[in-house]
Amino acid sequence: xxxxxxxxxxxxxxxxDAIVVLRKRGIASAAKKASRSxxxxxxxxxxxxxxxxxxxxxxxxxSDFVAKTEDFKELLHDISMHIAAADPKYVRREDVTEAxxxxxxEIYRAQAAQTGKPANVVEKIVEGKMAKFYEEVCLLDQPxxxxxxxxxxxxxxTKIGKLGENITVRRFARFKVGDDQWTIATTKxxxxxxxxxQ
Amino acid sequence: xxxxxxxxxxxxxxxxDAIVVLRKRGIASAAKKASRSxxxxxxxxxxxxxxxxxxxxxxxxxSDFVAKTEDFKELLHDISMHIAAADPKYVRREDVTEAxxxxxxEIYRAQAAQTGKPANVVEKIVEGKMAKFYEEVCLLDQPxxxxxxxxxxxxxxTKIGKLGENITVRRFARFKVGDDQWTIATTKxxxxxxxxxQ
Lengths: 198, 198
Hints:
The structure is a homodimer. By secondary structure, the first copy, chain A, is of the alpha+beta class. Chain A is built from 7 helices and 6 strands, in the order ααββααααββαββ. A 4-stranded antiparallel sheet of chain A has the order 1-2-5-6. In chain A, strands 3-4 form a two-stranded antiparallel ribbon. In chain A, a hairpin with a 6-residue loop joins β5 and β6. In chain A, α2 crosses α7 (152-163) and α4 packs antiparallel against α7. Chain A is globular.
């Protein structure tokens, strides 16, 4: 409450601006905690009505105490439901390998070339598509399905601010009945001291 | 009920033998259906108490009608709970590549060699371990956690007999909080007409 009041003051009474202030503070606060190891947490799931789409996600935090809070459970639920709907392919942009990135670029280039437009226009189209690439396929960069004005990363940053611990999405899986493909994504960014496995 | 009566007659009134008769019939019935495409089904999940272990599994059948039956849902629940507890690494033994198999064999050989026993004894130890390998790591060969006298494969065969459609486990994922490893297993065996992707 104190934070909200201060934010409103900073935003000269404008509610929307105050929300932006709080979010920036949340992000700053989250950034300070970003190097802290997250070895606790929970696994959550979301099955889309009818059982045709299912998601499994592991979200980590620093203590088992926080993992058991209603806030953390709400975050788990929101993230898993978001993954079911928005179908990300990676946890964060740092997980996109150079090979993946180049492959996507080539696909867009081939598509754009088919329009028959000049080479420099084709390049601009490709650039435009790649600029959107991360927010289309990286969970943390995707607009949060329940509130498109913030990304999933910002949603998490707000919870970090509220719960006082670093929170990281470790991995997720998404299955859709009948699809030959499935998604399994795990993040390569190691918190300090944490072992990394592919 | 008719099937049960016939089985008891065939087993000369012995209940345990009758169960074996029914299971064999179930397996025979399942085998007849094994080539039928399974393009419908459901995704289910199981979160172990405390949220430290989570499982996602896709089980296919032939029709959406069967996918919505209580029997099918019960099977989904049993399989996902089983995977959480028994931690299989593959769906079926055909999914174990020659490389995987050889690697396991080498690990057992190295362990057995450390006992200092003679080479022929070491080989026998390794053979014994590999004979058990499939039932330890392949879902369909594992003893069903709720009833160890039958394998998960037999559990499914019984449901195939009951529901009258082919039923296949397509893939599963298992996460455990804090583990660097995770399991994702998908089966390579294609039903007739079904496309295969790795």
